Amino acid sequence: MSRLVLTVIGDDRAGFVETLAEAITAHGGNWEQSQLAELAGQFAGIVVVTVPNERAGELRAALDGLEGLMEVIAHTGAEERAAPHKAWSHLRVDLIGSDHPGIVRDVSAALARHGLSIESMATERRDAPMSGGRLFEAHLLVRVPLGVDPADVRDDLERVASELFVELTIGEA
To answer: How high is the pLDDT of residue 129?
Structure first.
């Protein structure tokens, strides 16, 4: 079986996912995992599919044929295997504060300094109640390598949060 990682984007409309799923199924593919969302009027995401080796080319051609409805790029995925990071611990990092440039940069830099890897991240901007400004909210799930002290990570993130004027919550996942 071939694993493909599809990146998809197109105008948000009813039937978007159905169109993609139909193309995958029609060529013997199996939809395994995905993250999809409407962002700024576009529907975008990542989908992992498996397809019999002999049908992978057909599926890629069919996905190319969806141009005009959506843009789909098929990337070759790694074979599924037990990842060494399964033994790593996880931290959940949630933050909220007044929106301004640099929040994601500074938080991700703090994580990278400790060798942490972001497993998932969701962010959004929304109106602040009663203040008339905009809030930035982020929710991250990060992998902590063996040998890294979560307390050191927490101290660094709390320092960054203080500099950014954002509220931070960190917990084990």
So the answer is: 84
- Residue indicated by tokens 């962002």: 39
Q: Indicate the CATH number of 85-172 among 3.40.250.10, 3.30.70.260, 3.30.70.100, 3.90.45.10.
A: 3.30.70.260
* Structural fold of domain 2-76: Alpha-Beta Plaits (3.30.70)
Give per-residue pLDDT as tens, 104-132: 999 999 999 999 999 999 999 999 887 77
H/E element, 81: none
pTM attached to this predicted model: 0.80
Q: Round to the nearest angstrom and report the end-to-end CA distance of the chain.
A: 32
Question: Residue 111: enclosing H or E segment and its boundaries?
Answer: helix 103-113
Q: What average pLDDT does the structure give for the chain?
A: 92
Q: Which residues in the chain are classed under CATH 3.30.70.260?
A: 2-76, 85-172
Calpha distance 27→72 (Å, rounded):
15
Residue whose structure tokens are 């074979």: 79
